[in-house]
TrEMBL record:
CDD domains: DUF302. InterPro entries: DUF302 (IPR005180), TT1751-like_sf (IPR035923), UCP021774 (IPR016796). Residues 35-100 form the DUF302 domain. PANTHER family: SLR5037 PROTEIN (PTHR38342). Signal peptide: none annotated. Pfam families: DUF302. This is DUF302 domain-containing protein.
Amino acid sequence: MGFALSTALHTSFDDALARTREALAEQGFGVLTEIDMQATLKAKLGEDMEQYVILGACNPPLAHRAVEIDRQIGLLLPCNVVVRADPGADGDVLVEAMDPQVLVDVSGEAELRPVADEVAAKLRAAIDSL
């Protein structure tokens, strides 16, 4: 089983990042965290890499339902969405989100499946709209 929902865009990195934020918002997700891996690795390690941003996305009603089922599920929240330049295809940007079914698999909590299904549908809709 794969663990990502993804698409490739032929656009600028900044455009892909902005479109991803908009698509997530349209599906009820807010971005709680943003990690610029390129800048962080350069500043902390002196290492270069392609543009790579991790967005921590949260849909509050769905997160609440999940935490009500299993308090430890917060260890796996928020949903990470990665926007990254494709090093193998100049001009392409990859947008990837963790498949929420992984939460069910990792936790072993079958009651989370309907919540994970709903989150997955919303993330797929966001990614498909790009």
